[in-house]
Automatic annotation (TrEMBL):
PANTHER family for the chain: ENT-KAURENE OXIDASE, CHLOROPLASTIC
Protein name in the entry: Ent-kaurene oxidase, chloroplastic
Classification via Gene3D superfamilies: Cytochrome P450
Residues reported to bind heme: 446
Bilayer-crossing regions: 6-28
Keywords: Heme, Iron, Membrane, Metal-binding, Monooxygenase, Oxidoreductase, Transmembrane, Transmembrane helix
Subcellular location: Membrane
Length: 503
């Protein structure tokens, strides 16, 4: 009999327990309802997608922060994204809550372009990421590695100065654009550091075409930067993945295929040199020695990453800094005086940088106001967590709006003004790279900040030491930006006068 009654009794206890737990949870929730971040009102189904039509979402995010506060949520089709707009809450996400927010959320375009998250910057945190970050730091970007590439940086900066000098002599015109020579010299440096050699052209067997250096730059740097901001509406509606979007797919696949083919051809050429016993001391040589841990696709993706990352944000920062200095003669004079006092008749070099606090302040203030990476690529929350006192459930995407952190009135007085003097206060350590959040924070902090600072500060210093800069009339208003990083839409045009001729 007992074995007949027992199942009934067990069932009663089970039902009772489940009901009890359900009631208890209900009471708990009623007492302490989960506190979600405020939501920006949007449309049914599409959420806030229409409000983000233009390709500068950081500006819209910043406007919303004025209404909804430093942390709020938006809906992009089926996914919920929490946007962080203050340094305090950004640090909480990037540093203290990192273990709950460590994976990357990439668009389909970025997944294709990064060869399924094979590059350091877009890989998910884990063994692969730790390994390849160690590779890039040990071989090119860490302090010791940077010493080995010093001669490339010195040569690059002197070349830019010489090109500008010759240009104004030969053309009897002092109006110049810094972009062209700087971009091309920076690309030489990126190739030398990544492949050991600069190249004038490359024959790509897969495509049966020889590409010039300009075309290589277009394929490896410009096209992927544009592709990275392409939006495939199916990213926001995964249940509609089956609907074809051929034009978009073809465009991104073409881009990815061409950049892969060109990088592969460049690698093959260098491999031949290595096999003839030539040692080129570069990232590729280092990666080949570690090849057993990498697939061919990963190797190609990593070499491409080092080329594109070296070629872009440093140019963006340096051009904006020169724009600001050319626009603000008082700041330019102050910087020139500082350089004169420290360098006297010597050419400014990297050794002088730690003795030049105003130059350092110009660099950080330019990063603050022109945020080269205005939005950190989104992360995915994989377990429930808390941010800024709000509950953030697993499955949410997170993005950090660095532009808004840099414009936050709580942290910065008159944030819209370019004012390097703000970084001269005792609050800041001169050589601290993280006066702003521009290089990120925590375990995914930028690996190339030292290189960016060394090139940008030495270049700004040398360009001011050598020439007096004055913006062309009408240039003040040219502040529009394009691309993923905040490139100046129109290259800066300025008049330069060699210092030895300046009044
Ligand atoms: C002014 C110039 C630069 C700025 C503002 C900048 C900014 C950033 C930011 C915001 C991140 C993302 C951090 C995160 O996800 O939390 C990042 C990551 C990264 N950056 Fe930079 N960057 C600059 C220059 C460079 C250069 C010159 C290189 C290499 C040549 C480089 C290599 C990397 C790498 C490899 C990562 C990935 C780090 C990781 O995921 O662990 N960056 N950078």
């Amino acid at each position: 009999m007992a074995h007949v009654i027992m199942p009934g009794a067990l069932a009663t206890i089970a039902v009772f327990s489940i009901t009890f737990v359900a009631i208890w949870k209900f009471i708990l929730h009623r007492r302490r309802p989960l506190n979600y971040p405020p939501a920006v009102p949007g449309w049914p189904v599409i959420g806030n997608l229409f409000q983000l039509k233009e390709k500068k979402p950081y500006l819209t995010f910043t406007k919303w922060a004025e209404v909804y506060g430093p942390i709020y949520s938006i809906r992009l089709g089926t996914s919920v994204m929490v946007v962080l707009n203050s340094a305090e809450v950004a640090k909480e996400a990037l540093v203290s809550k990192f273990s709950s927010i460590s994976t990357r959320k990439l668009s389909k375009a970025l997944t294709t372009l990064t060869c399924n998250k094979s590059i350091v910057a877009m890989s998910d945190y884990g063994e692969y990421h730790k390994m390849v970050k160690r590779y890039v730091i040990n071989s090119i970007l860490g302090p010791n590695a940077q010493k080995r590439y010093r001669h490339h940086r010195d040569a690059m900066i002197e070349n830019v100065v010489n090109i500008l000098s010759s240009k104004i002599k030969e053309e009897y015109c002092s109006l110049v654009e810094l972009r062209e020579p700087f971009q091309s010299e920076l690309f030489h440096l990126a190739l030398k550091q990544s492949l050991g050699k600069d190249v004038e052209s490359v024959y790509v067997e897969e495509l049966g075409v020889t590409f010039t250096k300009k075309e290589i730059f277009q394929i490896l740097v410009v096209d992927p930067m544009m592709g990275a901001i392409e939006v495939d509406w199916r990213d926001f509606f995964p249940y509609l993945r089956w609907v074809p979007n051929k034009r978009m797919e073809m465009k991104i696949q073409q881009m990815a295929m061409r950049k892969r083919a060109v990088t592969k051809a460049l690698i093959e050429e260098q491999k031949k040199r290595f096999s003839h016993g030539e040692s080129l001391s570069c990232y590729l040589e280092y990666l080949l020695s570690e090849e057993s841990n990498l697939t061919e696709e990963q190797l190609i993706a990593l070499v491409w990453e080092s080329i594109i990352e070296s070629s872009d944000t440093t140019l963006v920062t340096t051009e904006w800094a020169m724009y600001e200095l050319a626009k603000n003669p008082k700041c330019q004079d102050r910087l020139f005086q500082e350089i004169e006092e420290i360098c006297r008749s010597e050419k400014l070099t990297e050794e002088h940088l730690q003795l030049l606090p105003y130059l350092n302040a110009v660099f950080h203030e330019t990063l603050r106001i022109h945020s080269p990476v205005p939005i950190i690529p989104p992360r995915h929350v994989h377990e429930d967590t808390q941010l800024g006192g709000y509950h953030i459930p697993a499955g949410t995407d997170i993005t950090v709006n660095l532009y808004a952190c840099n414009m936050d009135k709580k942290d910065w007085e008159k944030p819209e003004e370019w004012n390097p003097e703000r970084f001269l206060s005792d609050k800041y350590e001169q050589m601290d790279m993280h006066k702003t959040m521009n290089f990120g924070a925590g375990k995914r902090v930028c690996a190339g900040s030292l290189q960016a600072m060394l090139i940008s500060c030495s270049a700004i210093g040398r360009l001011i030491q050598e020439f007096q800069w004055k913006l062309k009339d009408g240039e003040e208003e040219n502040i529009d930006t394009v691309q993923l990083t905040t490139h100046k839409r129109y290259p800066m045009k300025a008049y330069i006068t060699p210092r030895n001729q300046a009044a």
